[in-house]
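Hello, quick one for you while I still have it in my head. A protein chain has come my way and I'm curious about its shape. I'm sending you its amino acid sequence along with the C-alpha coordinates. I'd be grateful if you could look everything over and explain what you see. Here's the protein in full, and shout if anything looks odd to you:
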Amino acid sequence: MAKSLIFNYKFNLRNILMKPLYILKNRSDIGAGTRGSDMGIDALEIAAINSQNDFFNRHPFKDIKTHNETVYDKVKNTTAKRINFVLEQCQRLKKATKLALEAGSFPLILSGDHSSALGSLAGIKAAYPDHTLGVVWIDAHADLHTPLSTPSGNVHGMPLAAALGHDNSTYQINTVSKETLTDWEQMKNLGTVTPIVQPEHLIYFGVRDTEKEEDALMSEKGIRNYPVHEVRHRGLVQCVEEALSQLAQVDLIYITFDVDALDCDLISHGTGTPVSKGFDPKEVIQLIQGIQASNKVVALEVSEINPLLDEKGNRMAETAFKVIDEVFG
Protein backbone atom coordinates (compact mmCIF):
# COMPACT_ATOMS: atom_id res chain seq x y z
CA MET A 1 0.00 0.00 0.00
CA ALA A 2 2.81 2.43 0.86
CA LYS A 3 4.59 1.84 -2.44
CA SER A 4 1.34 2.47 -4.31
CA LEU A 5 0.80 5.83 -2.65
CA ILE A 6 4.40 6.97 -3.20
CA PHE A 7 4.28 5.97 -6.86
CA ASN A 8 1.01 7.81 -7.42
CA TYR A 9 2.40 10.88 -5.68
CA LYS A 10 5.44 11.04 -7.96
CA PHE A 11 3.33 10.44 -11.05
CA ASN A 12 0.57 12.93 -10.27
CA LEU A 13 2.68 15.73 -8.79
CA ARG A 14 3.87 16.66 -12.29
CA ASN A 15 0.25 17.30 -13.31
CA ILE A 16 -0.40 19.36 -10.19
CA LEU A 17 2.66 21.56 -10.63
CA MET A 18 1.94 22.21 -14.28
CA LYS A 19 -0.58 24.77 -13.06
CA PRO A 20 1.13 28.06 -12.23
CA LEU A 21 1.08 28.95 -8.57
CA TYR A 22 -0.79 32.13 -7.67
CA ILE A 23 -0.42 33.45 -4.14
CA LEU A 24 -3.35 35.17 -2.45
CA LYS A 25 -2.17 37.22 0.53
CA ASN A 26 -5.11 37.59 2.88
CA ARG A 27 -3.86 39.46 5.95
CA SER A 28 -7.21 39.62 7.72
CA ASP A 29 -7.18 38.70 11.42
CA ILE A 30 -10.50 40.15 12.58
CA GLY A 31 -12.06 36.73 13.09
CA ALA A 32 -9.50 35.74 15.74
CA GLY A 33 -9.55 36.28 19.47
CA THR A 34 -5.92 37.45 19.58
CA ARG A 35 -4.43 40.07 17.27
CA GLY A 36 -1.26 39.45 15.30
CA SER A 37 -2.00 36.82 12.65
CA ASP A 38 -2.24 39.66 10.11
CA MET A 39 1.57 39.68 10.32
CA GLY A 40 1.87 35.98 9.53
CA ILE A 41 2.40 36.49 5.79
CA ASP A 42 5.21 38.97 6.39
CA ALA A 43 6.76 36.49 8.82
CA LEU A 44 6.63 33.81 6.09
CA GLU A 45 8.37 36.13 3.65
CA ILE A 46 11.04 36.95 6.23
CA ALA A 47 11.54 33.21 6.77
CA ALA A 48 12.09 32.79 3.02
CA ILE A 49 14.54 35.69 2.88
CA ASN A 50 16.53 34.41 5.85
CA SER A 51 16.83 31.00 4.20
CA GLN A 52 17.95 32.67 0.94
CA ASN A 53 14.93 31.28 -0.85
CA ASP A 54 13.33 33.33 -3.65
CA PHE A 55 9.97 31.53 -3.44
CA PHE A 56 7.95 34.74 -3.08
CA ASN A 57 9.76 36.37 -5.99
CA ARG A 58 9.04 33.48 -8.34
CA HIS A 59 5.25 33.54 -8.16
CA PRO A 60 2.64 36.21 -8.93
CA PHE A 61 0.48 37.34 -6.04
CA LYS A 62 -2.49 39.44 -5.06
CA ASP A 63 -2.94 41.37 -1.83
CA ILE A 64 -6.53 41.14 -0.57
CA LYS A 65 -7.96 44.27 1.02
CA THR A 66 -8.79 43.84 4.71
CA HIS A 67 -10.90 45.40 7.46
CA ASN A 68 -8.19 45.04 10.10
CA GLU A 69 -8.70 48.63 11.20
CA THR A 70 -12.00 47.55 12.79
CA VAL A 71 -10.08 45.99 15.69
CA TYR A 72 -10.05 49.50 17.15
CA ASP A 73 -13.86 49.60 17.23
CA LYS A 74 -15.67 48.58 20.38
CA VAL A 75 -17.10 45.07 20.07
CA LYS A 76 -20.85 45.15 20.71
CA ASN A 77 -21.70 41.75 19.22
CA THR A 78 -20.33 39.17 21.64
CA THR A 79 -21.82 36.11 19.88
CA ALA A 80 -20.07 36.71 16.53
CA LYS A 81 -17.46 39.45 16.82
CA ARG A 82 -17.15 41.59 13.68
CA ILE A 83 -19.14 39.04 11.68
CA ASN A 84 -20.26 41.71 9.21
CA PHE A 85 -16.65 42.51 8.34
CA VAL A 86 -15.67 38.84 8.28
CA LEU A 87 -18.49 38.31 5.79
CA GLU A 88 -17.09 41.07 3.55
CA GLN A 89 -13.60 39.57 3.81
CA CYS A 90 -14.91 36.15 2.80
CA GLN A 91 -16.66 37.74 -0.17
CA ARG A 92 -13.39 39.34 -1.27
CA LEU A 93 -11.47 36.09 -0.94
CA LYS A 94 -14.22 34.21 -2.74
CA LYS A 95 -13.86 36.51 -5.74
CA ALA A 96 -10.05 36.33 -5.77
CA THR A 97 -10.04 32.52 -5.47
CA LYS A 98 -12.61 32.16 -8.24
CA LEU A 99 -10.64 34.40 -10.59
CA ALA A 100 -7.39 32.54 -9.90
CA LEU A 101 -8.98 29.19 -10.64
CA GLU A 102 -10.68 30.45 -13.79
CA ALA A 103 -7.31 31.74 -14.99
CA GLY A 104 -5.93 28.20 -14.74
CA SER A 105 -3.81 28.84 -11.63
CA PHE A 106 -3.35 26.92 -8.41
CA PRO A 107 -4.20 29.28 -5.52
CA LEU A 108 -1.87 29.17 -2.53
CA ILE A 109 -3.94 31.11 -0.02
CA LEU A 110 -2.02 32.64 2.88
CA SER A 111 -4.45 33.90 5.50
CA GLY A 112 -4.28 35.56 8.86
CA ASP A 113 -7.07 33.95 10.84
CA HIS A 114 -9.01 30.88 9.72
CA SER A 115 -12.45 32.48 9.34
CA SER A 116 -11.58 33.39 5.74
CA ALA A 117 -11.45 29.70 4.80
CA LEU A 118 -15.17 30.05 4.11
CA GLY A 119 -14.30 32.54 1.35
CA SER A 120 -11.78 30.13 -0.15
CA LEU A 121 -14.33 27.32 -0.19
CA ALA A 122 -16.99 29.59 -1.68
CA GLY A 123 -14.54 30.72 -4.37
CA ILE A 124 -13.80 27.15 -5.40
CA LYS A 125 -17.50 26.35 -5.55
CA ALA A 126 -18.16 29.52 -7.58
CA ALA A 127 -15.50 28.49 -10.11
CA TYR A 128 -16.78 24.91 -10.24
CA PRO A 129 -20.50 25.01 -9.31
CA ASP A 130 -21.23 21.58 -10.82
CA HIS A 131 -18.30 19.83 -9.11
CA THR A 132 -18.42 18.03 -5.77
CA LEU A 133 -15.94 19.47 -3.27
CA GLY A 134 -14.00 17.52 -0.65
CA VAL A 135 -12.21 19.19 2.26
CA VAL A 136 -9.12 18.05 4.20
CA TRP A 137 -8.93 20.21 7.32
CA ILE A 138 -5.54 19.98 9.10
CA ASP A 139 -6.13 21.74 12.41
CA ALA A 140 -6.20 21.35 16.18
CA HIS A 141 -9.76 22.69 16.18
CA ALA A 142 -13.00 21.63 14.50
CA ASP A 143 -14.20 25.21 13.73
CA LEU A 144 -17.82 24.01 13.87
CA HIS A 145 -19.27 26.63 16.19
CA THR A 146 -22.02 29.06 15.22
CA PRO A 147 -23.23 32.32 16.77
CA LEU A 148 -25.75 30.18 18.66
CA SER A 149 -23.23 27.77 20.17
CA THR A 150 -19.93 29.67 20.44
CA PRO A 151 -18.43 30.19 23.90
CA SER A 152 -16.00 32.85 22.63
CA GLY A 153 -17.77 34.73 19.82
CA ASN A 154 -14.67 34.44 17.62
CA VAL A 155 -15.70 33.83 14.02
CA HIS A 156 -12.52 31.90 13.18
CA GLY A 157 -14.19 29.05 15.06
CA MET A 158 -17.18 29.05 12.67
CA PRO A 159 -16.15 28.67 8.99
CA LEU A 160 -16.95 24.98 8.66
CA ALA A 161 -20.36 25.28 10.27
CA ALA A 162 -21.17 27.95 7.69
CA ALA A 163 -19.79 25.81 4.84
CA LEU A 164 -21.96 22.92 6.04
CA GLY A 165 -24.97 25.24 6.31
CA HIS A 166 -25.53 24.28 9.93
CA ASP A 167 -26.75 26.36 12.90
CA ASN A 168 -26.18 23.79 15.68
CA SER A 169 -29.37 25.10 17.26
CA THR A 170 -29.75 21.92 19.33
CA TYR A 171 -26.86 23.11 21.46
CA GLN A 172 -27.70 26.81 21.53
CA ILE A 173 -26.23 28.65 24.51
CA ASN A 174 -26.46 32.26 23.24
CA THR A 175 -29.20 34.76 22.54
CA VAL A 176 -28.38 36.13 19.11
CA SER A 177 -29.49 39.45 17.61
CA LYS A 178 -31.44 39.68 14.36
CA GLU A 179 -28.56 41.51 12.70
CA THR A 180 -26.15 38.72 13.59
CA LEU A 181 -28.54 36.06 12.36
CA THR A 182 -28.88 37.93 9.06
CA ASP A 183 -25.09 38.04 8.62
CA TRP A 184 -24.85 34.38 9.59
CA GLU A 185 -27.44 33.41 6.97
CA GLN A 186 -25.39 35.26 4.36
CA MET A 187 -22.28 33.38 5.45
CA LYS A 188 -24.09 30.05 5.15
CA ASN A 189 -25.23 31.04 1.67
CA LEU A 190 -21.93 32.47 0.48
CA GLY A 191 -21.39 29.62 -1.96
CA THR A 192 -22.95 29.35 -5.40
CA VAL A 193 -24.44 26.09 -4.08
CA THR A 194 -25.60 25.69 -0.47
CA PRO A 195 -24.25 23.94 1.48
CA ILE A 196 -20.77 24.21 0.01
CA VAL A 197 -19.62 20.95 1.58
CA GLN A 198 -21.40 17.77 2.64
CA PRO A 199 -20.31 16.30 6.01
CA GLU A 200 -19.23 13.01 4.44
CA HIS A 201 -16.83 14.98 2.24
CA LEU A 202 -15.09 16.66 5.19
CA ILE A 203 -12.12 14.96 6.84
CA TYR A 204 -10.14 16.25 9.80
CA PHE A 205 -6.52 15.56 10.57
CA GLY A 206 -5.15 16.49 13.99
CA VAL A 207 -8.29 17.88 15.66
CA ARG A 208 -7.84 17.53 19.42
CA ASP A 209 -9.27 20.65 21.11
CA THR A 210 -13.06 20.82 20.82
CA GLU A 211 -16.12 21.77 22.84
CA LYS A 212 -19.11 19.51 23.49
CA GLU A 213 -21.24 21.41 20.96
CA GLU A 214 -18.72 20.59 18.21
CA ASP A 215 -18.30 17.00 19.39
CA ALA A 216 -22.05 16.49 19.18
CA LEU A 217 -22.19 17.83 15.62
CA MET A 218 -19.22 15.71 14.53
CA SER A 219 -20.90 12.63 15.97
CA GLU A 220 -24.32 13.45 14.54
CA LYS A 221 -22.94 14.07 11.04
CA GLY A 222 -20.37 11.26 11.13
CA ILE A 223 -17.46 13.59 10.36
CA ARG A 224 -14.19 11.65 10.34
CA ASN A 225 -11.24 12.85 12.38
CA TYR A 226 -7.77 11.30 12.27
CA PRO A 227 -6.17 12.42 15.55
CA VAL A 228 -2.41 12.57 15.83
CA HIS A 229 -2.12 9.43 17.96
CA GLU A 230 -4.14 7.39 15.44
CA VAL A 231 -2.05 8.60 12.50
CA ARG A 232 1.12 7.56 14.33
CA HIS A 233 -0.26 4.26 15.59
CA ARG A 234 -1.82 3.06 12.33
CA GLY A 235 0.55 4.85 9.96
CA LEU A 236 0.16 8.01 7.94
CA VAL A 237 0.01 6.21 4.60
CA GLN A 238 -2.88 4.00 5.67
CA CYS A 239 -4.84 6.95 7.11
CA VAL A 240 -4.31 9.03 3.97
CA GLU A 241 -5.39 6.16 1.74
CA GLU A 242 -8.53 5.71 3.84
CA ALA A 243 -9.25 9.43 3.56
CA LEU A 244 -8.82 9.37 -0.21
CA SER A 245 -11.06 6.34 -0.39
CA GLN A 246 -13.75 8.27 1.46
CA LEU A 247 -13.27 11.16 -0.98
CA ALA A 248 -13.22 8.93 -4.04
CA GLN A 249 -16.50 10.34 -5.33
CA VAL A 250 -15.59 14.04 -5.04
CA ASP A 251 -14.31 15.95 -8.05
CA LEU A 252 -12.08 18.45 -6.24
CA ILE A 253 -10.24 18.66 -2.93
CA TYR A 254 -9.33 21.75 -0.90
CA ILE A 255 -6.64 21.43 1.78
CA THR A 256 -6.35 23.90 4.63
CA PHE A 257 -3.48 23.87 7.11
CA ASP A 258 -3.93 25.79 10.34
CA VAL A 259 -0.49 25.87 11.94
CA ASP A 260 -1.92 25.04 15.36
CA ALA A 261 -2.14 21.49 13.99
CA LEU A 262 1.59 21.42 14.79
CA ASP A 263 2.84 20.53 18.26
CA CYS A 264 3.30 23.88 19.99
CA ASP A 265 5.78 22.38 22.47
CA LEU A 266 7.92 21.04 19.65
CA ILE A 267 7.72 24.09 17.36
CA SER A 268 6.56 27.25 19.15
CA HIS A 269 3.50 29.05 20.49
CA GLY A 270 3.44 31.38 17.47
CA THR A 271 -0.27 30.93 16.78
CA GLY A 272 -3.42 32.29 18.40
CA THR A 273 -4.63 29.02 19.94
CA PRO A 274 -1.64 26.67 20.42
CA VAL A 275 -2.33 23.07 21.43
CA SER A 276 0.13 20.44 22.62
CA LYS A 277 0.60 16.95 21.19
CA GLY A 278 0.25 17.91 17.53
CA PHE A 279 1.97 16.88 14.31
CA ASP A 280 5.60 17.46 13.50
CA PRO A 281 6.44 19.30 10.22
CA LYS A 282 7.45 16.14 8.35
CA GLU A 283 4.08 14.56 9.07
CA VAL A 284 2.23 17.59 7.72
CA ILE A 285 4.36 17.64 4.57
CA GLN A 286 3.76 13.94 3.93
CA LEU A 287 0.06 14.35 4.67
CA ILE A 288 -0.37 17.17 2.15
CA GLN A 289 1.69 15.35 -0.44
CA GLY A 290 -0.33 12.19 0.11
CA ILE A 291 -3.61 14.04 -0.52
CA GLN A 292 -2.05 15.72 -3.55
CA ALA A 293 -1.48 12.26 -5.00
CA SER A 294 -5.21 12.12 -5.75
CA ASN A 295 -4.64 14.75 -8.46
CA LYS A 296 -7.85 16.44 -7.24
CA VAL A 297 -6.36 19.18 -5.08
CA VAL A 298 -7.26 22.63 -6.46
CA ALA A 299 -6.16 24.95 -3.63
CA LEU A 300 -4.10 24.98 -0.44
CA GLU A 301 -4.54 27.42 2.42
CA VAL A 302 -2.13 28.14 5.30
CA SER A 303 -3.34 30.24 8.23
CA GLU A 304 -3.03 31.38 11.86
CA ILE A 305 0.70 32.20 12.04
CA ASN A 306 1.06 34.82 14.78
CA PRO A 307 4.66 36.08 15.12
CA LEU A 308 3.71 38.31 18.06
CA LEU A 309 3.15 35.18 20.15
CA ASP A 310 6.25 33.33 18.99
CA GLU A 311 8.56 32.84 21.96
CA LYS A 312 11.22 31.35 19.67
CA GLY A 313 11.76 34.28 17.31
CA ASN A 314 10.15 33.46 13.98
CA ARG A 315 10.05 29.69 14.45
CA MET A 316 6.40 29.07 13.54
CA ALA A 317 6.67 30.99 10.27
CA GLU A 318 9.95 29.28 9.45
CA THR A 319 8.34 25.90 10.00
CA ALA A 320 5.25 26.79 7.95
CA PHE A 321 7.46 28.06 5.13
CA LYS A 322 9.37 24.78 5.19
CA VAL A 323 6.07 22.97 4.66
CA ILE A 324 5.12 25.27 1.77
CA ASP A 325 8.53 25.01 0.13
CA GLU A 326 8.61 21.21 0.41
CA VAL A 327 5.13 20.94 -1.12
CA PHE A 328 5.73 23.38 -3.98
CA GLY A 329 9.50 23.73 -4.15
The radius of gyration is 18 Å. Confidence is low (pLDDT under 50) at residues 1-14. The first strand starts at residue 21 and ends at 26.
